[in-house]
Amino acid sequence: MKSLKFLGMSLMISSVLAFTAACGNAGNEKAEGQLQGEIPIDGSSTVYPIMEAAAEDYRSVQPDVKVSVGFAGTGGGMEKFTKGETDFSNASREIKDEEAQAAADNGIEFERFELAYDGITVVVNPQNDWAQDITVEELKKMWIEDGTTKKWSDIRADWPAEEIVFYSPGHDSGTYDYFDEVILDEQELVRNATLNEDDNVLVQGVAGDKYAIGFFGYAYYSENLDKVRALAVNGVEPTNETIETGTYTPLSRPLYTYVNTARINEKPEVYDFLTFLMENAGDLAEDVGYVRLPQEKYEEQLAKLDGLKK
């Protein structure tokens, strides 16, 4: 009986030790899987909500990796990126030739990854009860500088004879660049527009003036339905469907992030974060108000990322 009792005690102790060892090994494995470091990101304020959401979710996976996300605008972000100051540069347009050349001059190679679809949304104050839609030609007439003080009645005779108050992204913004290309035809924007890189400032500006008009990314519109109202452009309203299919034209566009490819191999956390981003970009885009890409596009880009890993 004594020997059985001793045997039982021995088995219990052995089990406890085995369990403890197993837990210790699991802890070691987890520790080995944890990464450390910093990932600086800057660029488009339009892309910012997606990347900020990704950074926040990534913290629960890799709490020792600090992902900092700025919103200096696409141009401002590219300036830092091409100097090697950031690992990623968010962009609401494609990189310009001069920016690519600046990167090459500094020995920086990069790859572009597509995150979501956006539709630049033209918005007015909810108290605006006259304008429901606008044509591209009317947008040109409204937003291109011609030396006059623009009134709503200058665009359509039955609209109020009240001065238009303009709110626009700043010159460093990719949204400004895209609007400049497809609406302004690279002519001068009205000089009396209030410009700001922070789209939230534009939202507040339009929300505070009955005679205001502005434009910014679709997510900022969908987040502020109680503050601003969207205009249909050429008879098409911005919606997830019209943006995804491209029928909301010419203001539908893709959103990107550019990565310094050297950092993918120099910094394991960059590769890991970008993998996490591409695996979750569709859900993140929808969560913040943009439109996801077809799943095969994310899978193609994950394959491209694997090909960059050495």
Provide a descriptive summary of the structure in words.
The chain has 310 residues and is an alpha/beta fold. It folds into two domains: 33-117 and 254-308, 3-Layer(aba) Sandwich (D-Maltodextrin-Binding Protein, domain 2), CATH 3.40.190.10; 121-250, Periplasmic binding protein-like II (D-Maltodextrin-Binding Protein, domain 2), CATH 3.40.190.10. It is built from 13 helices and twelve strands. It has helices at 2-33, 48-59, 74-81, 97-105, 136-143, 152-155, 174-182, 199-207, 218-222, 240-245, 261-266, 268-288, 295-308, and strands spanning 37-43, 65-69, 88-91, 110-119, 121-124, 133-134, 165-169, 194-196, 212-216, 229-230, 232-233, 252-260. The chain has a five-stranded mixed β-sheet with strand order 2-1-3-12-4. A five-stranded mixed β-sheet has the order 8-7-9-5-10. The model is unreliable at 1-30 (pLDDT under 50).
CATH architecture heading of the largest domain: 3-Layer(aba) Sandwich
Order of SSEs: HEHEHEHEEEHHEHEHEHEEHEHHH
Roughly what percent helix? 40-55%
CATH class of the largest domain: Alpha Beta
Rg, rounded, reads 26 Å
Kindly report the average pLDDT value: 91
Summarize the biggest pleated sheet.
5 strands, mixed
Number of helices: 13
Question: Which structural class fits the helix and strand makeup?
Answer: alpha/beta
Q: Quick one: how many beta strands?
A: 12
The neighbouring-strand order within the major sheet is 2-1-3-12-4
Q: Hey, roughly how much beta strand do the residues contain?
A: 15-25%
The CATH superfamily title of the largest domain = Periplasmic binding protein-like II
| CATH domain fold name of the largest domain | D-Maltodextrin-Binding Protein, domain 2
Give start-end ranges of low-pLDDT stretches: 1-30
Distance, first to last CA: 63 Å
Overall outline: elongated
Number of domains: 2
